Amino acid sequence: MVIDGFFGDYHLQEVREEIQQLQQVALFTDNDTYNNARERSNLVFFCEKLEILAEAAYLLKEKEKLFQQYVQQQPILQSQAEKD
Question: What does pTM read for this prediction?
Answer without folding.
Answer: 0.77
